[in-house]
Design goal:
Blueprint: H1 2-7, E1 12-15, E2 21-22, E3 28-30, E4 35-37, E5 42-50, E6 57-58, H2 60-65, E7 69-75, E8 84-93, E9 101-110, H3 141-166, H4 177-180, H5 183-197, H6 227-230, H7 241-245, E10 261-264, E11 266-273, E12 279-283, E13 292-295, E14 304-309, E15 319-326, E16 333-339, E17 350-353, E18 359-361, H8 376-379, E19 387-391, E20 394-403, E21 409-422, E22 435-449
Length: about 450
């Protein structure tokens, strides 16, 4: 991504299938419906939850019970770095001879960045390294549990009422069933209705919802200590806003009250096309792996346009701009540039004269970048007035731009039409050539400000 930041990814945009203008490096290409997809028009799916420290993988239901936190790893409450377990020896009385002491191995938590330890808040050392660290008890835990149970009962009551309305008894016409031979059909349907209606209550019965105790308003507040006005403030002992918000249940004001917090779990996401429901991006299930099983980014399938040289652009003065084209696929691509639709008048601030001939892009070959002895421009019979240079799967071509506004950015748009060889239509076991489709995308180019 650093490469795209350096060349300016926001200067050249493509129109997604949803209508948004997005850089090519942030688009996905569905090989089944042959459309561009951005992050807003794809379905996001959560694959596994995992801890970024111990790489433990758990299911979504288990992560919900653990409040999306790892049970074994902790974050430093002072600097948010991961705490490590340190071992030390402690002298304890010998059980055989109380007059003697024997060393015992104990463990505590320590931060390797800010040197915070669990001993700073009085947490006792543990005999095992797996855990058992003391945690703060929330004084409002019972109140929160009561409210959660109350709203859970309300949700169950609403669900039962919806089920009751859905399966209300209607006036039956069973006296017509024998005449038309529908007795067996009605019997089967009644069995299904009874099985579904058994999940809800009978008419007249209601779900009993226990009333939650009302909150007691605080009439009197604790007086402010006189030490706030008389004693000097020591900033090293006062917590910051970020440290307080990291622990919203207690929000400690002193550093001596900072307790370690369980580390947040992370997820791996899969992206799916909403139209054909095929995967566009799917990472490896192993949390330690950075590889992708499926990664259909558009930059690997769609020709890429970049800005090479831009002269001084003056108002109503024609200028020559050099653009480059890259072919990311392993077959030769024929490309045409066409005028954009009149609907794009809100973007265009200049007129552009596009090449009328076909632009032929060579197949991508990584080894050809080191071959300097072949003159590919003569091999493809390029027009020197259009094609400025050719190297491997990259070409440069010139366009003429005339700004139509005296101030502001010079923006142009055009259509890019090319042939795409769809490799998904050819199965490995079949002797069938891949299908070639003609695709078309709208390209938006920002050439920079108008020079006075």
């Amino acid at each position: 991504m650093a490469t795209f930041k350096r060349i300016g990814i926001d200067r050249v945009l493509l129109r997604c299938s949803c209508g948004s203008r997005t850089p090519l490096c942030r688009l996905y290409f569905c090989r089944h419906c042959l459309k561009l997809r951005c992050g807003e028009c794809v379905s996001h799916e959560v694959d596994p939850h995992y801890c970024p420290n111990c790489l433990e993988t758990i299911t979504g239901a288990e992560a919900k019970l653990k409040k999306n936190r790892c049970a074994n790893c902790f974050d430093c409450p002072s600097c948010k770095h991961t705490l490590s377990t340190r071992a030390t020896s402690q002298a304890v009385p010998d059980p055989d001879d109380p007059s003697k002491t024997t060393p015992k191995k104990v463990y505590y938590l320590a931060c390797g960045f800010c040197r915070w330890t669990s001993r700073d808040v009085g947490i006792k050392d543990q005999p095992v390294a797996t855990g058992g660290w003391a945690e703060q008890e929330n004084s409002d835990f019972k109140r929160i549990t009561t409210l959660l149970e109350y709203y859970r009962q309300l949700a169950q009551k609403e669900k039962v009422e919806k089920e009751r309305k859905k399966y209300t008894r209607r006036r039956g016409y069973l006296h017509f069933s024998d005449k038309y031979g529908l007795a067996s059909v009605v019997a089967k349907r009644r069995v299904g209705m009874l099985s579904m209606s058994s999940l809800s209550l009978k008419e007249g019965d209601e779900v009993k919802v226990s009333d939650a105790p009302a909150a007691d308003p605080a009439c009197e507040l604790e007086p402010i200590s006189q030490a706030v006005y008389t004693e000097p403030l020591v900033l090293e002992k006062v917590t910051t806003i970020s440290q307080r918000l990291a622990n919203p249940e207690f929000q400690p004001t002193n550093r001596d009250d900072l307790y370690p917090k369980h580390k947040h779990m992370l997820i791996k996401r899969s992206l799916r096309c909403r139209e054909c429901e095929h995967n566009l991006s799917k990472s490896d299930f192993n949390p330690s792996s950075i590889k992708f099983k499926i990664q259909l980014v558009a930059i690997h399938h769609v020709p890429e346009i970049r800005i090479m040289t831009v002269p001084n652009l003056s108002f109503q003065k024609e200028s020559q701009v050099v653009l480059t084209l890259f072919n990311p696929v392993g077959n030769m691509t024929h490309l045409n540039l066409l005028p954009s639709d009149p609907e794009e008048s809100d973007w265009d601030t200049a007129t552009i004269e596009l090449p009328t001939c076909d632009l032929v892009l060579a197949a991508r070959d990584d080894a050809s970048e080191f071959d300097e002895g072949v003159d590919q421009q003569q091999e493809f019979n390029d027009d020197s007035s259009v094609i400025t240079f050719r190297k491997a799967n990259k070409i440069g071509f010139g366009v003429k731009v005339t700004p139509q506004k005296a101030v502001g950015e010079v923006k142009v748009s055009f259509l890019m039409k090319y042939d795409y060889k769809n490799m998904t239509t050819a199965l490995p076991g079949e002797n069938k050539e891949p299908q070639t489709d003609i695709l078309q995308h709208c390209v938006y180019v920002n050439l920079g400000p108008v020079t006075s």
